[in-house]
Amino acid sequence: MPFSLFICDCDGVLVDSELLACRIDAEELARRGFADYPLETVLRRFAGVSQTDFMATVERETGRALGEDFAEAVASRVKELLRTELQPLPDAGAVLASLPLSKCVASSSTPAKLDLALTVTGLKDQFAPHIFSSVLVEHGKPAPDLFLYAAKAFGTPAERCCVIEDSVAGVKAARAAGMEVIGFTGGAHCGPSHAERLLEHGASTTVQRWTDVPGALERLAN
Q1: What are the residue ranges of CATH 1.10.150 in the chain?
Q2: The pairing of beta strand 5-8 with beta strand 205-207
Q3: Angle between helices 39-46 and 51-62 in degrees, nearest 10
Q4: What's 47's DSSP letter?
Q5: Peptide bond into 129 cis (omega under 30)
Q6: How far apart are CA 19 and CA 105, in angstroms?
Q7: CATH code, residues 18-85
Q8: Where in the chain is the domain with CATH 3.40.50.1000?
Q9: End-to-end distance of the chain based on CA atoms, in angstroms?
Q10: DSSP-H helix ranges across 122-209
Q11: Each residue's pLDDT tens digit, 34-65
Q12: From the UniProt record, which GO molecular function terms apply (predicted)?
């Protein structure tokens, strides 16, 4: 296999959190009078984007401030949901354990949210200490910075890295980094056209289940 490093997004790939987090974002925006960002818009435009970039975009587009407490209010509600409702994606742990590759997480989530999500779902030991948050780089996804940071941490050339991502922003970031990318469509937030969107933006292939990942890696290796 030509790949040495398997880089995993977290939300919507390892853990089924994307819908939970975007729902809280949309609810908090609506509560503050930002009516142009319902859940479907937040999912379509901001899944996989860091909270900082998401907030900056909304404020730029509306010309209004979200409020200094927006991030804290969202984080508090999301934290409670993760503790009580979060589940890993089926078979993620078993498949990861079977892959003969180095593995890491590269996510737009904050370090605290990443730690909580991976701990609650029992996946942290698969990756620790190689868990990288976008706070480590200047530009989050869709910029390639975070994936290049992860590759550098392992001393692995980009062409020997394969990324698994569920978001358009993540797919664009992986492609910009010069890496192959598997689009994942098994999260609760993924609609019937999700695979098509990921392929349109550069995914090398898509899978709906973790059990399909080894086969996808083999196909990309040939």
Answers
A1: 18-85
A2: unpaired
A3: 120
A4: T
A5: yes
A6: 19
A7: 1.10.150
A8: 5-16+87-221
A9: 8
A10: 145-154, 168-176, 194-200
A11: 999 999 999 888 887 888 899 999 999 999 99
A12: hydrolase activity; metal ion binding
Average pLDDT for residues 135-163, to the nearest whole number? 97
Q: Which of 164, 162, 147, 161 is nearest to 209 (CA)?
A: 164
- What tokens does 91 get? 């078979």
Judged on CB neighbours under 10 Å (0-12, 13-18, 19+), 147 is buried
The pLDDT score that the predictor gives to residue 21 is 84
> What's the whole-model pTM score?
0.82
> Which range is least confidently modeled, 84-88, 114-118, 138-142, 161-165?
84-88
Helices (H), 126-167: 145-154
Query: Considering just the CA atoms, what is the radius of gyration of the chain in Å?
Result: 17
> Which long-range contacts link 188-197 to residues 24+ away (Cβ below 8 Å)?
188/16, 188/18, 188/19, 189/12, 189/18, 189/19, 189/22, 189/43, 189/47, 190/12, 190/166, 194/166, 197/168
Domain 5-16+87-221, CATH number (from 1.10.10.10, 3.40.50.720, 3.40.50.2300, 3.40.50.1000): 3.40.50.1000
Q: Which amino acid is at 34?
A: F
Q: What is the identity of the amino acid at 138?
A: E
Lowest mean pLDDT: which of 54-58, 75-79, 119-123? 75-79
Which residues fall within 8 angstroms of residue 99, CB to CB, at 6 or more apart? 6, 213, 214, 217
Taking Cα atoms as reference points, which of 174, 222, 221, 177 lies closest to residue 201?
Answer: 174
